[in-house]
DNA sequence: AACTTTTTCAACCGCGCCCAG
DNA sequence: ACTGGGCGCGGTTGAAAAAGT
């Protein structure tokens, strides 16, 4: 006994949306707001599946979407977040205002993967391509000082995960022809990420206050006015500062990506 | 100009999670 | 505790556009 379909497929349109459909959807959501996607198509007079409406709205029609090319800054942020979160596109999108998970996923697959490969970095585990990749020990995302080994060997065993390289022939060619690889044969991209070099931490009074102290995750992503910002709390209690890495995550243990979930 | 190949990205699909009943 | 509906996520597909021959 399977799940009932989310909509009556026989009576729904598929494929590209027409201008008229877009206008209907926009008008309906403007009046009634988002939500209740299952009942929305009927209510809005659309011959579409609710999921399709949701996708169209979130990925294309939402007024707060940022259009245009990704900036270099966004590129680097995506790479960093991906190294921490993996293919958690919705979480990554949550840290890039105006970008959608689908957009970032596509951009990753078409541009950033290639960019990393040309740097000699395997985009899946974020490690050099010439490193053995069948069964790798991937250190749980830990922001301790380099050399801060995980003490318990059992813990170490628990975090052995299989990482597929999944490189295509084309990607192999990109890598083998990469000048970067020749320059940096021993490039080691550990997941412990240090602050971007040359970054100016004194851009705002907020940063000014913090120039001697680590920044929280929210500040690092320039959403320091959000409730996720820990700096003020931190500053009020300087005697008891938790150590934060540049992403603002406490360094006393393992990153649980769920803590990054957008609210 | 015509055709083929490659790239891009909007949209679809199926699964898993969450929550109300 | 269990079940089913709704939603969101991530992987995949395929049409359109761009690039190459």
Automatic annotation (TrEMBL):
Q: Which organism is it from?
A: Anisodus acutangulus
What superkingdom heads the lineage?
Answer: Eukaryota
Tell me the PANTHER family matching this sequence.
Answer: TRANSCRIPTION FACTOR MYB8-RELATED-RELATED, TRANSCRIPTION REPRESSOR MYB4
Which InterPro entries does the record associate with it?
Homeodomain-like_sf, Myb_dom, Myb_TF_plants, SANT/Myb
Q: Which GO terms describe its molecular function?
A: transcription cis-regulatory region binding
The HTH myb-type domain sits at: 9-61, 62-116
Return one Gene Ontology term, BP aspect: green leaf volatile biosynthetic process
One annotated Gene Ontology cellular component of this protein: nucleus
The segment(s) forming the Myb-like domain are 9-61, 62-112
Q: Does the keyword Transcription apply?
A: yes
Q: Which UniProt keywords apply?
A: DNA-binding, Nucleus, Repeat, Transcription, Transcription regulation
Family annotation (PROSITE patterns) = HTH_MYB, MYB_LIKE
Q: Could you tell me where this protein is found in the cell?
A: Nucleus
Key word DNA-binding present: yes
Official protein name in the record: Uncharacterized protein
């Amino acid at each position: 006994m399977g799940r009932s379909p989310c909509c009556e497929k026989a009576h729904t349109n598929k494929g590209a949306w027409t201008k008229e459909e877009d206008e209907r959807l926009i008008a309906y959501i403007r009046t009634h707001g988002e939500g209740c996607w299952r009942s929305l198509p009927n209510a809005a007079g659309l011959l579409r599946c609710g999921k399709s409406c949701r996708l169209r709205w979130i990925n294309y029609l939402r007024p707060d979407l940022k259009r245009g090319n990704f900036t270099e800054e966004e590129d680097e942020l995506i790479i960093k977040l991906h190294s921490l979160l993996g293919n958690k596109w919705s979480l990554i999108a949550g840290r890039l205002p105006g970008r959608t998970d689908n957009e970032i996923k596509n951009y990753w697959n078409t541009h950033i993967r290639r960019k990393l490969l040309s740097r000699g970095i395997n985009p899946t585990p974020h490690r050099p391509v010439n490193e053995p990749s069948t069964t790798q020990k991937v250190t749980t995302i830990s922001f301790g000082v380099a050399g801060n080994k995980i003490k318990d060997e059992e813990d170490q065993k628990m975090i052995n995960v299989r990482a597929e390289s999944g490189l295509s022939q084309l990607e192999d060619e990109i890598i083998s022809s990469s000048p970067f690889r020749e320059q940096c044969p021993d490039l080691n991209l550990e997941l412990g990420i240090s602050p971007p070099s040359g970054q100016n931490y004194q851009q705002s009074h907020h940063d000014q206050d913090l120039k001697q102290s680590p920044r929280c995750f929210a500040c690092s992503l320039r959403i320091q006015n959000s409730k996720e910002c820990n700096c003020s709390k931190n500053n009020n209690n300087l005697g008891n500062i938790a150590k934060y890495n540049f992403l603002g995550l406490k360094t006393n243990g393992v990153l649980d990506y769920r803590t990054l979930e957008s609210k």
